[in-house]
Every structure is written in structure tokens, then in C-alpha cells.
Amino acid sequence: MRNPLHAVWALLVPLLMATQANAEQPVDWQINFQPAATDIMREISWFNDYTLWFIVPITVLVLVLLVVVIVRFRASANPEPSKTSHNTLIEVIWTIGPVVILLFLAIPSFQLLNAQFTPPDEPQFTVKATGYQWYWGYEYQVEQEVSFDSILLSDSDRASYGKEDRKEYPRLLAVDNEMVVPVNATVRVLVTAADVIHAFAMPSFGVKIDAVPGRLNETWFKADREGLYYGQCSELCGKDHAYMPIAIRVVSEQQYGAWLAAAADDLEAANAQLLASIDQAEKTVELAANDVQKIEE
Predict the structure, then answer these.
(1) What is the pLDDT of residues 269-281, one digit of tens each?
(2) Taking the CA of residue 249 as centre, how many other CA atoms within 13 Å lie in the half-sphere pointing to its CB?
(3) Measured between alpha carbons, how far is residue 267 from residues 146, 161, 231, 257, 271 in Å?
(4) At what angle do helices 267-296 and 253-263 cross, to 10 degrees?
(5) Please, what is the end-to-end C-alpha distance for the chain in angstroms?
(6) 7 pLDDT above the threshold of 80
(7) Is the pLDDT of residue 199 over 50?
(8) Whole-model pTM over 0.70
(9) What pLDDT, on the 0 to 100 scale, is given for residue 217?
(10) Residues 211, 198: Cα–Cα separation, whole Å
(11) Of 9, 172, 193, 212, which is the most buried if we count CB atoms within 10 A?
(12) E strands along 142-186, which residues?
């Protein structure tokens, strides 16, 4: 009986991973990055850990040298200070050493910077994100025009939008209309602003770029996990800067296609259908998992 169960789990686990409700967002006392949903963000996380192997030893070395100097060369221990003006060996070491360290940092840094501006393939579609005081406007550059504003969700509107779960839709991060994109699709984002400078930032995607009035900046992302991801405007833009969240919902290709077709005519209905589709998929997986568990017992 174990082998059939293993086969069922092998089919069920990928489905579960594809339909679980990920809502990546800041958490209390967070010291690490948000979980990565793109290869670029994983490279950023790797580079962060990589630089620590240089920063920590350098910091410890400087601290040790300071302690040695304070203790060994204090006035009471050296009533007659040394008159040494230079030391060739030490000067060579402190010149070559930093150059070598900077090379080890610069090469992967430039490689990462190049990857951030080089999509792995041709973008599937383009979304124009425009920053306003204090909300975002999105325009899908597709065959059927889809455009809408994304505004901070107020507590009084939660019920009407079906977003009462504060775990998935947290205060000051949830919006009325999320940007919706398909999983494993390369999305080009054109970023600008209509009034003052804003910044479009999505931590889980490794995306952060200024939105400047009169100028188009370009970035991209390719999310490989379905879920709801939160970011915020990252450029001080006025009194309500703290109330200008960014929300991107990554769904399956089929769910995205259905949403896009419906959104061209009725955005609210399209969002409601999408939420219902996601809830139904999650319930299906949950029921299947419970059935397998009962069989095992």
C-alpha cells in the first residue's frame, strides 16, 4: 500500500506547491531578505552572503589592530614614541591587499548588475507602472488594453473586495487591485511618475528602480513561484509616502489568461473570479491531502 501512496504524494506535492497561498511580505524583527521568487533575487541573496566572508574578517582585523595599537603604543608604555616614517613591506601589503579584495567583490558584482538588466528571453508582455501621489497606475501593453489604479486597501473596503484575511492582506500593504502576472513569464516593466520621484520596489523579485517624471526606466522580472508579493514605494515622495504599497499576484498561465480576458471589460469581476479560482484550487489540494492522510492512517 505504501508505493501507491508515494505515487499519489508525488503527484500531489507539485500541485500543492503551485497553488499554496504565498504572501511574501515584511515580518517583525526581520534581518534577512524576503524569500526569493526570482533567480535574480537568489543571486542577490548569494552576493550578500558572499560579501560577508570579506566584511567580517576585515572588521575583526581592524578591531584587533586598534586594540593592539591602544594597548601596546599607549603613552605609559611608550614614553618615547617611535620615529619610524614608513615601512615598505607594510605599504605594499596594504596596497595590494585591498586591490585583490576589491577584485573579488567587483567581478561578481558586475556580473550581477549585468544580469539585472539582461532578461533571459524576450519579454512575454510589458506593463507600464506610473507612480502618483500616492498610488500606482498600471497599463498592460497587450492586444486588449487593460489599465487600472492600485490604491491602498482601507479597512472599510476589505469585505467588499473579499480580502478580510489580514495574514494574506496585511494592513498598509494590501491594495484594491494587484498587478497580475503569469508564473515563469518574463515581464518587462516600464516605470515612470506623473508628479514627483517615486521608486518601484519588489523585494522578493530583486527589483528596485526609480520612477522619474518625464522619463521611462525599464526593468523586468520572471517569478517562478505563484503567490502574492508585496513591495513599497522606496523614494520619499510626500506626506503619504508610507501608504503607497505595491502588490503583484503571480498565478498560473490559465488563470492569468482568464483574468486578462475578463479584465478588459470588467476589472472588479475579473479580480473576483481570479480569487475564487485560487481559493478553489487551494481547497482541492487540501481535500486531496486530507484524503491521502486518512488512507495512510
Answers:
(1) 999 999 999 988 7
(2) 25
(3) 8, 12, 22, 13, 6
(4) 160
(5) 11
(6) no
(7) yes
(8) yes
(9) 97
(10) 5
(11) 193
(12) 146-150, 179-182
CB-based burial, 55-64: b 16+ in 10 Å, e otherwise: eeeeeeeeee
Grid cell listed for 97:
591587499
Please tell me the distance from the alpha carbon of residue 273 to that of residue 277, in angstroms, as a whole number. 6
pLDDT of residue 168: 92
Listed residue (163, 248, 202) closest to 26, CA to CA: 202
Paired strand residues for 232: 245
**Inter-residue contact 180 to 10 (CB < 8 Å):** no
Average pLDDT over residues 71-90: 84
User: What residue type is assigned to position 278 of the chain?
Assistant: I
Residue 83 grid coordinates: 620615529
147: β partners: 139
Q: Is 217 helix (H, G, I), strand (E, B) or coil?
A: strand
Dump the DSSP string for 252-273: -HHHHHHHHHHHTT-HHHHHHH
Joined grid coordinates for residue 156: 472599510
From the list 219, 37, 260, 230, the residue with the least C-alpha distance to 152 is 230
- 244 and 237 Cβ atoms separated by less than 8 Å: yes
